[in-house]
What we know:
- There is one protein chain.
- By secondary structure, the chain is α/β, with parallel strands linked by helices.
- The chain has a domain at 2-15 and 68-234: TIM Barrel.
- Helices cover 43% and strands 15% of the residues.
- It has helices at 2-5, 71-78, 93-104, 118-125, 127-136, 138-162, 184-204, 222-227, 244-251, 270-278, 281-287, 304-319, 321-330, and strands at residues 9-10, 30-34, 38-42, 48-52, 62-65, 111-113, 167-171, 175-176, 179-180, 209-213, 232-234, 256-261, 290-294.
- A hairpin with a 2-residue loop joins strand 8 (175-176) and strand 9 (179-180).
- Helix 10 (270-278) packs parallel to helix 12 (304-319).
- The protein is globular.
- The two termini are 25 Å apart.
Amino acid sequence: xxxxxxxxxxxxxxxxxxxxxxxxxxxxxxxxxxxxxxxxxxxxxxxxxxxxxxxxxxxxxxxxxxxxxxxxxxxxxxxxxxxxxxxxxxxxxxxxxxxxxxxxxxxxxxxxxxxxxxxxxxxxxxxxxxxxxxxxxxxxxxxxxxxxxxxxxxxxxxxxxxxxxxxxxxxxxxxxxxxxxxxxxxxxxxxxxxxxxxxxxxxxxxxxxxxxxxxxxxxxxxxxxxxxxxxxxxxxxxxxxxxxxxxxxxxxxxxxxxxxxxxxxxxxxxxxxxxxxxxxxxxxxxxxxxxxxxxxxxxxxxxxxxxxxxxxxxxxxxxxxxxxxxxxxxxxxxxx
Length: 336
């Protein structure tokens, strides 16, 4: 599924590598202080973060300050830089025509990144501030979510008119192992209707599959996403208590499941890899609507030998899931 997420997703401006929404024009990047190993920078999105000096991508940054503290910051820093009328947000004219021609006779599924409602708002304010702003300034949060929906509709529409996309992604990243960072009632109040504007647009142009990308345990939000026209969820983190088998039994084929293989098992050896793959993948594949993959990025303690073994096993299982469901039952890995 990596190719579907990366190479075969339309290059529609979305967010940077850390989740913060891109800005046009970007803010000036400034080094505010540095030590031998680290730098504190104000990045192009207005965040103040601490990063490793020589290899900033080796870990997540340490967030020190977010760009939006109040309505004035939203109005003066962010909103003018997320204006859909600014050239560069989407393709037009000859560029769009060339892109459409390039994708017309493709032999692979093509997706498009779309928007984020809780996720972007949280990235602009931080978890603590957005959590209090739901109560202290609900009008501002409503405005930010509605603005995101309008931005998405305006920038997606030219692409959707010109190209038939097969799937779309909504990025939220809004949960931990104890559940989502806001209640379902709060999500419904602030995010659901803006999300529906985007999913309705996608459905209008024949995009059948809409996947929400959110780490952590999102179980209580699944009914809201289904109500909004979302058709799938990823990555079903096992460490957060996500149970893809139970979810499939509860929702049937109404929900596409992507992920659900515990990345930690890949570091524990072949027996644990066998148990993790065989306990769920054969049965889920037989139900349909399942894309088997690890439940996030593969961690660095997974050896090449273990990953190669996992990759070969996974390919073998998905080619004959009925046989391997029998193997799983024989070994006591599955009761399905």
